[in-house]
């Protein structure tokens, strides 16, 4: 009897031998921590290299222009580039917090609507609307926060670069 029931199981429902291994690996907290640390290490490395590239470009621009004709345009360009880079980096970093919080909020609202007694069809429709509203709201907040970080970094970077250039210009004279 057991042989007959196992013979009737479709092959698509049988689990391959690698699936439990993958599920076991991905269910471990240390796997996700490793992925998180790896991604942020990569982001920090890329942003550090970008920072060094922008600053070396700025230094070569200062060296190529005479000190008597100092303009703040290279500092403005460099500070805007740095502001944009750190604004994007802050938005990516915020995603690590926003995505789980958004999922918890979404699930909580759907569960509460289920407890209230909404029928399944209405629940599906509300879930679709809710997904769009939450995603739009989160996107707006992320862009707003990223712009604020970018603006602050750009302004601080500009003043730091202009001050450095003027200090270097006065010390060389």
Automatic annotation (TrEMBL):
It comes from the Eukaryota. Keywords: Membrane, Transmembrane, Transmembrane helix. The chain crosses the membrane at residues 32-51, 71-89, 96-117, 137-161. The keyword Magnesium does not apply. This is Reductase. The lineage of its organism: Eukaryota, Viridiplantae, Streptophyta, Embryophyta, Tracheophyta.
């Amino acid at each position: 009897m057991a042989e007959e029931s196992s013979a009737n199981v479709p092959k698509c429902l049988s689990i391959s031998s690698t699936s439990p291994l993958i599920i076991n690996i991905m269910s471990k907290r240390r796997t996700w921590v490793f992925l998180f640390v790896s991604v942020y290490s990569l982001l920090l490395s890329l942003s550090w290299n970008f920072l060094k590239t922008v600053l070396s470009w700025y230094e070569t621009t200062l060296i190529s222009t005479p000190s008597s004709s100092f303009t703040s345009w290279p500092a403005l360009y460099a500070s805007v580039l740095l502001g944009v880079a750190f604004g994007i980096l802050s938005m990516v970093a915020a995603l690590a917090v926003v995505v789980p919080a958004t999922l918890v909020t979404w699930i909580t609202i759907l569960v509460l609507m289920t407890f209230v007694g909404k029928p399944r069809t209405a629940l599906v429709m509300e879930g679709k609307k809710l997904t769009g509203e939450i995603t739009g709201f989160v996107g707006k907040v992320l862009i707003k926060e990223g712009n604020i970080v970018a603006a602050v970094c750009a302004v601080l970077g500009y003043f730091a670069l202009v001050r450095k250039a003027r200090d270097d210009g006065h010390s060389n004279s």
